[in-house]
Automatic annotation (TrEMBL):
Pfam families: PTPLA (PF04387). It catalyses: a very-long-chain (3R)-3-hydroxyacyl-CoA = a very-long-chain (2E)-enoyl-CoA + H2O; (3R)-hydroxyhexadecanoyl-CoA = (2E)-hexadecenoyl-CoA + H2O. It is an enzyme of class 4 (lyase). It is a multi-pass membrane protein. Residues 3-93 form the CS domain. It comes from Fundulus heteroclitus. This is Very-long-chain (3R)-3-hydroxyacyl-CoA dehydratase. Gene3D superfamilies: 2.60.40.790. SUPFAM superfamilies: HSP20-like chaperones. Catalyzes the third of the four reactions of the long-chain fatty acids elongation cycle. This endoplasmic reticulum-bound enzymatic process, allows the addition of two carbons to the chain of long- and very long-chain fatty acids/VLCFAs per cycle. This enzyme catalyzes the dehydration of the 3-hydroxyacyl-CoA intermediate into trans-2,3-enoyl-CoA, within each cycle of fatty acid elongation. Thereby, it participates in the production of VLCFAs of different chain lengths that are involved in multiple biological processes as precursors of membrane lipids and lipid mediators. Catalyzes the third of the four reactions of the long-chain fatty acids elongation cycle. This endoplasmic reticulum-bound enzymatic process, allows the addition of two carbons to the chain of long- and very long-chain fatty acids/VLCFAs per cycle. This enzyme catalyzes the dehydration of the 3-hydroxyacyl-CoA intermediate into trans-2,3-enoyl-CoA, within each cycle of fatty acid elongation. Thereby, it participates to the production of VLCFAs of different chain lengths that are involved in multiple biological processes as precursors of membrane lipids and lipid mediators. Belongs to the very long-chain fatty acids dehydratase HACD family. GO terms for biological process: fatty acid elongation; sphingolipid biosynthetic process; very long-chain fatty acid biosynthetic process.
Length: 360
């Protein structure tokens, strides 16, 4: 029996080589990759010269991976070989002169730029599928975003009302407006700060990426001032410090909530982002100082009224004044200031660092 060479057709992509061996009803197919990067093919089959043993070898232009995928059909033997490095070869074989039995496989043939476009289309398809599957993974995403948007809108309207009300009264009444801030705005502030408890719940439910502790410090800290110091002591309600505390709180919130609203709809205004991540730098320490002044002013009132005082056994005295708890709270306030100042600083760094990276 003669040993003959079959017709072999080839094509490539950036990562693979495709060979089509024109041999029908092939049996005893033996394909191996030699150490010198040469492919050896042997098979019994029906080729151009009838039933025979057919063989060929090809020394590749560049290194290929050792695993070879092969599929024999009635009409042909298909071989797929992976390139070791993903790049376009200028020809198939190391020898410049093309073997006579080798020809391009025009059914699969693509030139380099077409192959690149095919690769790009594949990558885009994979990306699209992964984005779609991520979106599909969370069927409540729309609902969550809708809830957050509404929450932020309500808070924005509430704090804007407080801010505008206080500003207008300041212009009309001057310093006199300081002393009845509580009576004109407290109901709205109660509403907003009760709603703000959701800001502690939201991260627990995984609705926002905020840390639980910074949110808890923020909400608990403000609510102590609002409900315990101002809310429970009438004597505190007409103090000028109420004006400063409420004004500092609402100034940041009229920028923070619209920033979140835009984030919910995937939009950003650079100036608003800058204000959200910069205004806290002067406002937060000023806010803590104003709150500390309110706490200090309330100490003698709690001592006198014995409100919230803890009853003690008669040997230890009448009761322990709530002012001691508040003195401890004053220390906690500055600890809270440190924790949240650091948190906000990191949030600012993270936002502007990632922004810079995107621009580059
Ligand atoms: C009885 C026990 C008491 C214990 C407490 C004792 C200590 C108390 C001390 C308290 C001192 C408080 C002083 C304070 O009251 C003074 C003032 O407030 S003065 C005014 C100035 N204040 C501020 O500037 C603070 C404003 N507040 C905040 O910034 C936040 O409340 C804070 C939790 C501090 C930080 O916010 P957050 O961690 O959420 O940062 P980000 O805004 O960057 O958000 C992170 C990502 O989550 C997304 N997000 C967050 N919330 C929402 C939302 N509602 N809707 C939609 N998306 C939201 C946000 O977009 C970010 O996502 P991404 O990273 O993808 O952009």
């Amino acid at each position: 029996m003669q040993i003959l060479t079959p017709h072999v057709y080839w094509a490539q992509r950036h990562g693979e080589i495709y060979l089509r061996v024109d041999l029908s009803d092939a049996t005893d197919v033996d394909i191996s990759l030699q150490e010198d990067n040469t492919l050896q093919f042997k098979a019994q089959g029906h080729g151009a010269k009838g039933d025979n043993q057919y063989e060929f070898s090809l020394e590749f232009l560049e290194q290929v991976k050792p695993e070879i995928h092969q599929k024999s059909t009635q009409r042909q033997v298909d071989i797929k070989i992976k390139k070791r490095e993903e790049r376009w070869w200028e020809r198939l074989t190391l020898r410049e002169k093309k073997p006579l039995f080798l020809a391009p496989d025009f059914d699969r043939w693509l030139d380099e730029s077409d192959a690149e476009m095919e690769l790009q289309a594949k990558e885009e398809k994979i990306n699209r599928i992964s984005v779609e599957s991520r979106v599909r993974k969370d069927p409540y995403l729309g609902l969550k975003k809708g809830y957050l948007f509404m929450y932020n809108l309500v808070q924005f309207l509430g704090f804007s009302w407080i801010f505008v009300n206080m500003t207008v009264r300041l212009f009309i009444l001057g310093q006199d407006s300081f002393y009845d801030t509580f009576h004109t705005t407290a109901d709205m502030m109660y509403f907003c700060q009760m709603m703000a408890v959701l800001e502690v719940i939201n991260p627990l439910l995984g609705l926002v990426k905020t840390g639980f502790f910074p949110a808890m410090i923020q909400v608990a800290g403000r609510n102590v001032i609002l409900f315990v110091i101002f809310g429970s002591l009438e004597e505190m309600q007409n103090q000028a410090v109420v004006f400063f505390v409420f004004y500092l709180w609402s100034t940041i919130e009229i920028f923070r909530y619209p920033f979140y609203m835009l984030a919910c709809i995937g939009t950003e205004w650079k100036l608003l982002t800058w204000l959200r991540y910069s205004l806290w730098i002067p406002l937060y320490p000023l806010g803590v100082v104003a709150e500390a002044v309110a706490v200090i002013q309330s100490l003698p009132i709690f001592d006198e009224s014995r409100l919230f005082s803890i009853p003690l056994p008669s040997v230890l005295g009448r009761s322990l004044s709530f002012s001691y708890t508040l003195q401890l709270y004053l220390v906690l306030m500055f600890l809270g200031l440190f924790i949240n100042f650091r948190h906000l600083y990191k949030q600012r760094q993270r936002r502007y660092r990632s922004r810079k990276r995107k621009v580059r």
